[in-house]
Amino acid sequence: MAFSAVDPKGSSTDNQFLENLATGGRRVVIGVACPVPDTQDSESRAFRRVGVRTGSLCVNAFDKARQVVFQVGAEPGIAIAAARAAGVTVPEAAFRPEPELDPFYRWAWIDFAGAGGSIAKISLAKIIDGLPSSTLRSLVAGKVVVVDFSGGYPGEMIYDSPAPGGDGTVSSAELTGNAMATMLAGFPLRDAPRWLAILLIAFCGVLGPVSALKVQPTRWAMIIGLQLVALLIALQLAFNAGMIMPAVATLLGLFVAIPMAMLISYRRTRTELGEMRRHFAGADPSAIEAVLKGTVISGAAASEAIVPGYRIEATIGRGASGNVYRATKLDTGEIVALKVIKPLLAEDSATRAQFEREIQAAKRFGHPKAVPVIEGGEVDGILYICSPYIQDGDLQMAISEHRLLTASQLQLLAEDIGSALDAAHDAGLIHRDVKPSNVFRSADGFLIADFGIARMSGEATISGTGGTVGTLAYAAPEQLDGHGYISPATDVYGLAGTIVAAGSGHPPYSADSVSETLAAKVRGAVPTVGETLAPAAQILARALSVDPGERQESCAELASELAEALRRGGGSD
Predict the structure, then answer these.
(1) Backbone φ and ψ of 329, nearest 5°
(2) What is the residue-averaged pLDDT of the chain?
């Protein structure tokens, strides 16, 4: 209960009221101003002579309205004097020193009952003007009463309230009342042990980053959210138990941990995704299976993360330079063929630069018998090429299923693919990897795909893997040692080998081993062309010559000679 002198009545009225209190047998504590040498001490001695205790009114010394002081000079704080008057022992050790502010300054936390206005106030002038004694008695019985006089001020002293709510302010009477209630309750608020505060700060600062190392981003974000909720609950429970926790430092630790966790999670995601990309591009069966099954990597579907902008759905082709996948272009919904190049084939900057040049050239190159390149690029060191998806499959698939071409179909194959290759040669492009798996059926003939990939990918190297052996079967001899001059004649060789395979069911040099195939190529052995192509055996043998200079000058010349030979030989469907 607090009385306030908002209606100034003058010092005579105040003195009359004090005299009545002092002679009424009650325990009275008078608050005196902050230390003024000699003057305050004489006032205190005068009050004590009439049995009235005194205490310093510097409750919020150093402008800290949350603190109650133990002693100001030789005068105890007003709340300490009130507690002693009530018989409550107030140990000085319970107060925290603050030597950087004042060598004698010691303070403790004030436990506020609530926002400003939580303690009832009655105008002192109203009491003196005739408030019935029975009414006053019912209001103050059994309570600690704080009487706040104007003391020559134009009104009450007002402070910013540390307690939430109300108008954000608290009067000097309420501040003193809350300080007294705190002392009389035996210090319900105290600082938490230092070890507990350090543990809480460490908990908030470490859990987020650690969780980012171990769990998915969606889960660690949830963990940090739960951590914040748990922190707020812990702070409230600690406060209810009378402990003041370092909330600001703890929250600061938590908020510092959040960007750290985000950075760790980002780096972890990049690392995991990079590893998955490299294994996938390297045609690792387990990585391919994981992607196609919809495995989630760091919160994202792997099928959409390998090459951003595409969702990989199925494998449709395998080769020495990389695999081809059916995919959906996410921005358009278009079904496409996505070729992912093996990492080892694109490690150096010169290779990647050449890849970029040839992809741009292939995009500019337009021919009705060439599968267009939609786009190509690099992600995390992995190269890829996107082309339209062709439903019917490639020529190698037909050969594997023993669906061989007739004489007229072989002529159409030579004409269609030959015209696309010659147009590419005129545009400065050499395919370098003409083979059945790069040729597709269309409604009106044949299409060739994969321009500019073989040289970049080092397809001419000899290896024991099935994909490279397959490429070796159609590679020109000048490609095999890596030092030969690549020219349009290289594509003439590849086209001839593809024609032989489409008409006979096997490559022109079909041996049991890589070494035997290589030996047959470099010594110029007679190719095996099959029955359908027998009339054109010499034409094809010329196209498959070891010396590029002995081959036809263009693919169109090869197609024309092939058609003429088949017609003269009576080749039919």
Answers:
(1) -80, 115
(2) 77
d(CA 209, CA 117) in angstroms, rounded, equals 44
Residue 239 has pLDDT above 70, yes or no: no
The DSSP call for residue 51 is T
**Contacts of residue 403, Cβ cutoff 8 Å, sequence gap at least 6:** none
Q: Beta partners for 169?
A: 160
Quote the CA–CA distance of 77 and 98 in Å, as a whole number.
Answer: 16
The amino acid sitting at 180 is M
Phi-psi category of 505—alpha, beta or left, where left has phi over 0 and alpha has psi -120 to 50? left
Q: Is the dihedral of CA 275, 280, 282, 284 positive or negative?
A: positive
Task: Return contacts of 82-86, CB within 8 angstroms, 24+ apart.
Answer: 82/29, 82/53, 82/55, 82/144, 82/180, 82/183, 82/184, 83/180, 83/183, 83/184, 84/53, 85/27, 85/28, 85/29, 85/53, 86/27, 86/144, 86/184
Q: What is the pLDDT of residue 468?
A: 38
Q: Residue 433 catalytic?
A: yes
Residue where the block lists tokens 């092939």: 562
What is the mean predicted confidence (pLDDT) over 428-449? 89
User: Comparing C-alpha atoms, which of 31, 324, 77, 281 is closest to residue 179?
Assistant: 77
Residue 328, pLDDT > 90, answer yes
Q: Which of 14, 111, 422, 433 is catalytic?
A: 433
CA distance 448 to 436: 9
Whether pTM exceeds 0.85: no
Residue entry with tokens 């490559």: 507
The answer on pLDDT for 3 being more than 50 is no
- Taking phi first (over 0 means left), then psi (-120 to 50 degrees means alpha), and beta for anything else, what does residue 35 get? beta
Q: What is the 3-state secondary structure (H, E, C) of 389-450?
A: CCCCCEHHHHHHCCCCCCHHHHHHHHHHHHHHHHHHHHCCCCCCCCCHHHEEEECCEEEECC
Choose among 87, 199, 198, 187: nearest CA to 144. 87
pLDDT of 153 higher than 60: no
DSSP conformational letter for 299: T
> From CA 284, how far away is CA 52, in angstroms rounded?
92
Helices 488-504 and 555-568 pack at an angle, to 10 degrees, of 30
User: Please, which residues have CB within 8 angstroms of residue 409's CB and are 6 or more apart in sequence?
Assistant: 502, 573
What burial letters (b/e) apply to 278-296, b meaning 16+ CB within 10 Å? bbbbbbeeebbebbbeeee
